[in-house]
Design goal:
Blueprint (H helix, E strand, L loop, with lengths): L1 E3 L1 H8 L8 H9 L2 E3 L1 H12 L7 H12 L2 E2 L4 H8 L8 H13 L2 E3 L3 H6 L3 E2 L1
Parallel strand pairs: 1-2, 1-4, 2-3, 4-5
Helix pairs in contact: 1-3, 1-4, 3-4, 3-6, 5-6
Length: 124
């Protein structure tokens, strides 16, 4: 299972897979894909501030149809419990996105160097 960071979801939805590394594109093409509910919420925030044209529901529906992306079903309580251990950042989105991947035993596709420095299973 591969989890996708928010920017990866946005790029895939926009048809901008070329922005991904070759390793990320290979994994996305060959593994089941999921998004943390927190990444979905971040997509919605980006839509609300005008950075994304489509809302989160539309993006996730399209990614589900096109790539089989699902929303991770880790309970919020479990995600928060795991996120309490992610003290390397004060960004609640990053904490919960990483926590969701860690709890699922999944790798996380992320270009974010800060995440990759602190989460060994983050790849780019």
């Amino acid at each position: 299972m591969i989890h996708l960071d928010t920017h990866v979801l946005a790029w895939l939805a926009a048809g901008e897979a070329a922005r991904l590394s070759p390793a990320a594109r290979r994994l996305i093409a060959s593994e089941p894909l999921a998004a943390s509910p927190m990444a979905v919420l971040e997509l919605q925030f980006l839509h609300e501030i005008g950075r994304l044209a489509e809302n989160a529901a539309s993006i996730m529906a399209a990614l589900g149809d096109d790539l089989g992306v699902t929303i991770a079903d880790l309970s919020f309580a479990a995600a928060v419990a795991e996120a309490r251990e992610e003290s390397w950042t004060r960004n609640p989105f990053d904490r919960l996105i990483v926590a969701s991947a860690r709890a699922a035993g999944a790798r996380l596709v992320s270009k974010d160097p800060f995440i990759r420095r602190h989460f060994a299973d983050a790849i780019w």
